[in-house]
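Renewal narrative, Specific Aim 1. Our central claim is that a sequence can be written position by position from structural information alone. The example that follows is taken directly from our test logs and has not been curated for this report. It begins with the C-alpha cells describing the chain, in the order in which they were read.
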C-alpha cells in the first residue's frame, strides 16, 4: 500500500478559501485592501491565499501576487489551480500582469487551471494564447 496520501482539492474548496480570505478595508485615505482574494493550489497540495492592496499610482499588487509570494516563501512555485474572487463573491479571472507572472515562476505553470467563472475552467495557456517558453 502506498504510504502517500493523495490530497484532492476541488475548485469549490479553493473558492471557499478565497471567500474566507476576503477582508475589504480602508488602509489609508486613498488605499484599500482585501477587495479581491485569491486561492491557489500548489503541487504539494497546499492551498495558499492572498488579498490585493490597491494604492494610488498603481503601487499596490493583486491578490494572486500575494498568494504566490506566500507560496514562494514556503519553497514552492508550481501552481495547479487558481481562483480569485471579488468582494461580492463573484469569480474573476486574473489580470494580464498576473497571467504572465504565473507563467514565469515555473516552467509548467502555463498548464495551471484557472476558474474564470462559475462554469468555466481554462488554463493559463488559454488565457495567454501566444505564450511561448523563454529559453
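The sequence written for that structure reads:
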Amino acid at each position: 500500500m502506498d504510504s502517500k496520501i493523495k490530497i484532492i482539492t476541488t475548485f469549490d474548496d479553493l473558492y471557499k478559501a478565497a471567500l474566507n480570505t476576503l477582508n475589504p478595508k480602508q488602509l489609508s485615505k486613498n488605499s484599500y485592501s482585501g477587495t479581491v482574494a485569491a486561492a491557489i493550489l500548489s503541487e504539494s497540495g497546499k492551498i495558499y491565499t492572498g488579498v490585493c492592496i490597491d494604492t494610488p499610482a498603481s503601487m499596490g499588487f493583486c491578490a494572486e501576487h500575494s498568494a504566490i509570494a506566500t507560496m514562494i516563501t514556503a519553497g514552492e512555485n508550481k501552481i495547479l489551480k487558481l481562483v480569485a474572487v471579488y468582494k461580492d463573491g463573484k469569480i474573476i479571472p486574473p489580470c494580464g500582469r498576473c497571467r504572465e507572472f504565473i507563467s514565469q515562476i515555473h516552467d509548467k505553470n502555463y498548464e495551471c487551471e484557472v476558474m474564470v467563472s462559475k462554469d468555466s475552467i481554462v488554463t493559463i495557456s488559454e488565457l495567454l494564447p501566444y505564450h511561448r517558453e523563454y529559453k
